[in-house]
Amino acid sequence: MTFVEYKMLNPFQRFAYKFKKFFKAIPGAIGRFFKAIGRFFVKLFTGIGKGFKNYGTTFVKGDWATKLSYLIFGVGDLHKGKIYKGILYFLAEVLYILYIVFFGWQYISKFNSLGTVETHVEKVGLIPKTVPGDNSMLILLYSVLTIVITIVVFAIYISNIKDAYKHQVMRANGEKPTTLRQDVREFLDGKYHITLLSFPVLMICVFNILPLIFMILIAFTNYDKQHMPPGTLFTWVGMENFAALFDVVNTPKKATTFLELTGWTLIWAVLATFSNYILGMIVALMINKKGIKLKALWRTLFVIAIAVPQFVSLLLMNQMLQTNGALNVLLSDISRMFGGGPVEIQFLNSSTLMARTTVIIVNIWVGIPYTILSMSGILMNIPEDLYESARIDGASPVKTFTAITLPYMIFVTTPQLITQFVGNINNFNVIYLLTGGGPTTQDYYQAGRTDILVTWLFTLSMNSQDYGLAAAIGILVFIVCATLSLIIYNNSKSMKDEEAFS
Amino acid sequence: MKKILAILLAGMMTATAFAGCGGGGSSSQASESKSGDSSAASSDAGATDEMTKDANTVDPSLFGDENNITLKVWAPDKAVSLVKEQVEAFKKAYPDKTFTKIEVIAQGEGDAGTQLLNDASVAADVFSFASDQLNKLVDAKVISEVAFAKTVTDMNSPETITAGTLNGKLYAYPETNDNGYYLVYDKTVVPEDKTAKLEDILAACKAAGKKFIFNCGDGFYACTFAFTAGVKIDGLEEDGVTQKFTQYDEAEAVKTLQAFSKLMKEYKGTFTSLDVAQIASGFSTGTLGAGVDGSWNTTADQDALKDKFGAAKLPTINVDGTDKQMISMFGYKYIGVNASSKFPASAQILAYYLAGETCQEQRAEKLGWGPSNKAVQEKPVVKDSPVLQAIAQQAQNACPQVNIAPTFWSPMGNLGNKLIADETKADDAAYFTKLLKDTIANVRDEA
Amino acid sequence: MIKSYKLRRHIANAIIYVLLAILGLLWISPFVYLLMHSFRLESMTTVPYLIPHQWGFDNYIALFQNSGSSAINFPRWFLNTLVVAIFSCIISTISVLAVAYTFSRLRFGARKKLMNVAMILGMFPGFMTMIAIYYLLKAMGLNQNLIALVICYSSGAGMGFQISKGFFDTIPRALDEAATIDGATKNQIFWRIILPMSKPIVVYTVLTSFIGPWCDFILAKIIMGDARDLYTVAIGLQSMVSPEFINQYYKQFLAGSVLVAVPITTLFLIMQRYYVEGVTAGGVKG
Question: Band of the pLDDT at B319, cuts 50, 70, 90?
């Protein structure tokens, strides 16, 4: 369809066209996504292959110092007069060896079995003394740490060799190695990204990626109430935990719970995201409308909702929504005014529909202030001349909104929308503090009617110690979220041409 | 007087120990019949004489080579200052030992287990905890078994020993015999002679326009419905995680559940399911006639009602013309010893002291805690307290909180929620049959 | 014609005023309720009426007097949280801005891949990893230590760069190019040109990262364990409504919540002015 044809359609047809286009694009996007993953692995392995080849040839061509760098880090650099770098390389090796000898080895050596020695009790006279055995959890965690450190040190090792060879070539060409001052300047300009990223990346690696790998590995173990460290050992069980979530024959209750909670989680995420987005935008538009006074006051009213810690405001909400809570008291007072009796609506723990509606409404109350804040800034940022020309063309307010405001907002906020959608899939606080998963039901395994997947996995790990199962759910949630957002994000307009509105 | 009693008791204990060795005797019957395994286990260890000097202290040689002792004690906030005094007394009781530091830190009994499971190496050496956590602690092997099991068994009430025993070993020193719930009421709303039947209580509350609170949504309280219906728990299966239930008459059980549900419907607006934290408030604002409250809230309830405060065991419910006593879940508080303690002997001896007779009596006097020690139970401080008497009576009509599977609580809470839910029809027997079966299946994790 | 247009606008505005008033009231009412009941003297937990009967400052005073309980120490918790919030806010803000600037302005090989990785990393249900984080901190000897909290709250900050990057993207590139021609390094461009123009986004980042420590009650609890003197207000307040304490401390909990809300609200109100000013200024420039 050409642009002219598109312009001739009526709004409904346009919508239908866009709708169709969107869904038609999904399979392609998914295909591209997996192709990209495939390409990534191909590149990775060819890269590794190339790396090995280089490793060999460098050794053959290297002088004695370069060759010695294969064993002792930094010798090449030291020999060529790049003293500080050589010392750093050497220190890295020493520290790594110390780490492995004094800490890493005792864990990584048991990684395969996750421990074999059970904790047991010995009696000394009357006094029972507990002799600690292997702690599977610590073995797993510190093994992951050791593996990550090893990978990093390996990268340092390779870079040490490359550097040694580079300086060898430079010396052969009669060049001098760069001084520390020159290097520092390079790190503030050409390699500035490394300087800026190194600290955040280090923090993320240690406190996000590493625990993440640990948690992912937990999903393949039988860490549950029967295998609790430090008393008892757990070990690898392969895909058993994932199987339990899909096996409708042997574990029907877990499978149905997983299926139904997934459904509700998606419904919840869509409703929660779009209700916040649309209503937040409407309120932001109202506040920022020309001629509306006291803008700061209106914003402030909503902003106060953010300023109270969420667990306090949600706990308060929970109490206000009880059968004897403030809302029912208020309704009773109103009902008495009209000659009615007391009102005792069970907002949270009786009917599924009522409870689900309540959580969504409360989530609007919690979430809109954030939307208003971010939207206000963006709304003011829309170039005024766009509106000017629309006014000259005699466009109606509605038309101006759909043709200018909305596209602009969507363009700017797509990343935010994805973040919010994913945030809602993982929205633990609202559900957990407000309903605790209730209303309860006998049809689910350790879950209630408003439980979403994350609150379920929290209950699983806290109440029934099903850590393995919980981790498996966590991984599945993660895969869905990650795939979804990667596809949308990389296909969104604001990502494709980053500089469009600048 | 106290001293004489202590000496007498100590004498009895020695006698018990010897009698146990001789293979019989009247005073060891309780322990023999209740937990034969545990006494067998301790005699296996070759310790017929546990070298306990009296109901509080042991032979100092048991410290072994431990000296310059550093210990950490967890006690609930309300008890911290008292426990600090008791720790000082403990130090004086062993004058030859040097104690570098014994600190007492406030840590709620409900949360102690979780903290210990998170990281036992930074947890207290000696800690108070509630009986529902015992299972997890034993499974994770973070709690040490009791060194003086035989003496402790003889000194404390049999149910606290049973609930503290797992796989034939006693794992914790009984501290109280009161961690349960009972009926609290406003004497001006519910007359004292009308507290025997649930129907009467509800009628009295309704007549006065006041509410009755029972937390149906929490498994700790809601299991009362199942227990009253005859569906009682009986420890765990062989696998150590699946809850075992006693034999029950299904028709009878369903009828009982229906009777509860019918009452809730009949007294809608009076019978409310709310958190027990609302009970003291309800009394103080005069909106509540009666409620089923936990023993830990007693002081708050008394403050709210002053001399109108009344306490009694749970009432009966009429099922098909017969009044059935409501059976509650009854828990205990224990003092446990951390298995990773650096001073295992000292920790055991301190736990023995803190769970001993003198300390229990002090806590009964100053904090109103119901003792588990049999000698203290007979003392006037317990005998003359209406609250402790009500709790003691309820203990007779209760399922002890022994070996509860972690999957027990939420299905039971669901059972309670369904009984009171608006959508539930009290005359639908098929629904209740299914509900009961589902609940049991969920508790047993037969999914 | 013009008159009717004006009239219509007036009516529209009037409707908007009414709507905003109603919505504002709805949004604010739970806090009015919170505020009123933090001054309530009678009863223990909730009461079956909306307006307290007896009013007084007792709950607030009690919070600051050591009531003889070693478990409740609100002033200390407040101070802890403030310190943690300030430090983690500084570190987070620097991290976020550094990452956002890198992805917005600098071009290098792994840029797009790193952006994708950073985006999806934050999607893993976080609390699953808490026990691992605890033991990592313990291996570093930082458990039961406020530094651990600063690390936890600021470590993931770098992944939340999207909004800041979006903002940097709108700053014209011509400025960078001109500076480069004048011989400025990337470092100088970042500190001397981009940052001074980014007040709104700096304010935004500061605000969001400052709030975090006041709200978390799960991870902080795991790290602090029984060290009640190192609690933050969130865990402290949470523990005040646990079954052990609720009857005694519920009203103090309400008062404490109000006290926590005050600094954050004030900060928001002050910063909001800059925020709006900054964004408007940015709009004119763009």
Answer: very high
Q: Report pTM.
A: 0.86
DSSP H or E segment with residue B325:
strand B322-325
Cβ under 8 Å to B: C residues 194-223: 222
Residue B120 one-letter amino acid: A
Considering only CB atoms, A127 lies closest to which of B139, B348, B439, namely B348
Which pLDDT belongs to residue A12?
A: 64
pLDDT tens digits for range B202-231: 999 999 999 999 999 999 999 999 999 999
pLDDT for A501: 44
B150 → chain A, closest CA residue: A126
- DSSP code of B60? G
Domain ranges across chain B = 2-179+331-388, 181-329+401-443
pLDDT at B43: 40
pLDDT in tens, C54-89: 999 999 998 888 666 678 889 999 999 999 999 999
Mind listing the pLDDT tens digit for each residue in B19-49? 333 333 333 333 333 333 443 344 444 444 6
A:C CB pairs within 8 Å: 274
Per-residue b or e along A270-299, where b marks 16 or more CB atoms closer than 10 Å to that residue's CB? ebbbebbbebbbbbbbbbbbeebeeeeebb
Say whether B111 and C47 touch across the interface (CB within 8 A): no
Ranges of residues in chain C whose predicted pLDDT is under 70? 1-3, 66-69, 126-127, 273-286
Residue-averaged pLDDT of chain B:
85
Question: Does the beta-carbon distance from A465 to B406 stay under 8 Å?
Answer: yes
Give the chains touching A; criterion: ≥3 Cβ pairs < 8 Å.
B, C
3-state helix, strand, coil in chain C (%, to 5): 75, 0, 25
Q: For residue A129, give the chain B residue with the closest CA.
A: B344
Structure tokens at C94: 């620097």
Which of C69, C70, C242 shows the shortest C-beta gap to B108?
Answer: C242
* C277: enclosing H helix or E strand: helix C246-285
User: B145 contacts in A (CB within 8 Å)?
Assistant: 121, 128
- How many Å lie between the alpha carbon of A120 and the closest alpha carbon of chain B? 8
Structural domain tally of chain A? 3
Which chain B residue has the Cα nearest residue C45? B281
**Amino acid at site B118:** N
**Test mutation, C26, C99, C123, C257, chain A, max A CBs within 10 A:** C123
The shortest C-alpha distance from A223 to chain B (Å) reads 12
Report ipTM for this prediction.
Answer: 0.85
Cis peptide bond upstream of A439, omega within 30: yes
CATH of B181-329+401-443, one of 3.10.310.20, 3.40.605.10, 3.40.50.11540, 3.40.190.10: 3.40.190.10
Contact B141 A119 (CB under 8 A): yes
DSSP symbol at B197: B
Inter-chain contact C47–B81, Cβ cutoff 8 Å?
no
DSSP assignment of C39-106 equals TB-SSSS--SSSS-SSB-SHHHHHHHS--S-SS--HHHHHHHHHHHHHHHHHHHHHHHHHHHHHHHH-
Residue that finishes a domain, picked among A57, A78, A102 = A57
Q: What is the pLDDT of residue C66?
A: 67
Q: With respect to CATH, is domain B2-179+331-388 assigned 1.10.287.1080? A: no
Q: Alpha helices of B156-297 — where are they, by DSSP H?
A: 158-164, 198-208, 219-228, 250-266, 277-284
The encoded tokens of residue A97 equal: 């060896």
Instruction: Enter the tokens of residue B90.
Output: 């403990």
DSSP summary character for residue A176: P
Q: Which helix (H) or strand (E) holds B233?
A: strand B233-236
* Interface membership of B291 toward A (CB under 8 Å): no
Contacts of C135 in chain B (CB under 8 A): 119
Residue of chain A nearest C191, judged by CA positions:
A188
> Do A102 and A195 fall within a single domain?
yes
